[in-house]
Prior knowledge:
By secondary structure, this protein is mostly helical. The chain has one domain (1-43). The chain has helices at residues 6-10, 15-28. The radius of gyration is 12 Å and the shape is globular. Keywords: Cytoplasm, RNA-binding.
Amino acid sequence: MHPEDIGKVIGRNGRTARALRTVVSAIAGRSVRVDLIEADEGR
């Protein structure tokens, strides 16, 4: 993912990230942990 797009993934006040957690939790049928990891730009 391009570094400038991180804000779009997280969303305003974390809404998009929270929605991703909700969807993944619903699919898994249990509480899950979703981490956003910043990768090195050299990759």
